[in-house]
Hints:
Blueprint: H1 3-6, H2 26-33, H3 50-58, H4 70-79, E1 85-90, H5 99-106, H6 108-122, E2 126-132, H7 136-148, E3 157-163, H8 172-179, E4 203-207, H9 208-225, E5 237-242, E6 249-253, H10 259-265, E7 273-278, E8 284-287, H11 298-302, E9 312-317, H12 322-335, H13 342-360, H14 367-378, H15 386-400, H16 402-411, E10 430-431
Parallel strand pairs: 1-2, 1-4, 2-3, 5-9, 6-10
Antiparallel strand pairs: 5-6, 7-8, 7-9
Helix pairs in contact: 3-4, 3-9, 5-6, 5-7, 6-9, 12-13, 12-15, 13-14, 13-15, 14-15
Amino acid sequence: MTDRDSRISPLPRLLKGVPSQGAMRLAAHVATHGEAPLARGRRKRRGSSALIDLVEQAGLRGRGGAAFPAARKMRSVHDARGRAVVVVNAAEGEPASDKDRMLVRVLPHLVLDGGLLAAQALGADEVIVCVCELESGAIASLQLALAERERSTGGARVRIATVPAGFVSGEESALVNHLNGGPALPTFTPPRPFERGVAQRPTLVNNAETLAHVALIARHGPKWFRELGTDAEPGSTLVTLSGPVEYPGVYEIEPGASLSSLIDAAGGAIAPIRAALLGGYGGSWVAAESPQQLALSSDGLSAHGASLGAGVVALISEQACGVAETARITRWLARQSARQCGPCVNGLDAIAGSLEEVAAGIAPAKARQQIARFAALARGRGACAHPDGAVRFVVSALQLFGEEFSEHASYGHCDGCTRAELPLAAHSRALVSAGR
């Protein structure tokens, strides 16, 4: 146990007061967090930079995967010409992640506070909350929350927009394209959404967790926010933990917490853990031999070629087959292609096909070299980041499960090939608030 793990945790923050069932109602939300500091009166076209300054001082980075400085993104929209729009991204097409869906499903008022405070800072007159069309629970929670606060939106109009289910549907240009009447597919850039987004207006697109943090920073200030985490990664962060643990679900941790502390908070492992997929299906595999030494932060994971990305920690047991899991997820990623460029249409399909041949033991002698060559051809050439994420996932698997790839090439199926452990469909997960 590290010193960080042994300190008393001031968590939860975002998950404070989570109800045992259903969504937190407005009265309970205000009792838990206090009133949001929303100004009254006429909304200024350029808003006020005061909140942006607080977010900058807090050092908040986006929690959608790219870790882009939240204040810099807000300021770009603030300084652009025209009336701004705020888009709350809770589409979350990543099957291994549930944190943003959970926030709008269980804590809708915290997310709405963040969206409305951002709108106030930017002078925006509209907030659009985007959720997957299949997430009926999240939609119902948002509808109830909006009905409860009909007259407390700070003057901005709030509406819910449903988004088709899909891995790339939550990419920010895909959301903007969908809101403008097109398909929910990434578009070529520039212009970026902050320049011309929804209805050609400057648009801030932030995921639900990022804006929930903004809501708390506005209340408690940057010094409070920085009491957790590191200088480079202050605050707390949500992760979705899946795999062979007693209580998989969404946890709030301090950046730098060890993997072992997260597993302990989830009731411990129920089977020996073989590996961890970090960052989601565009992330990287990491061996889980010493979870107490694996720090869940950018600095801690960079040495392993990984990052937390969108807050995914997906574990597999020693009974699972790394080759079969990689082949299964890569085929799914290929089917999730936007089909707008060669690396997606041809490259991912070729990689998935070769992986399936290796898993079945019918691949040519130099199949691994062929997969690596296909991956190199696809990397950096896509119309969006989807091929790059899939390649990162595959290349890390080739490195970690190299011995298994060789065995499958020679002997075919193993006992673990039929045991699928990584999730490929959204499913209900236990909601737990965890410390360090």
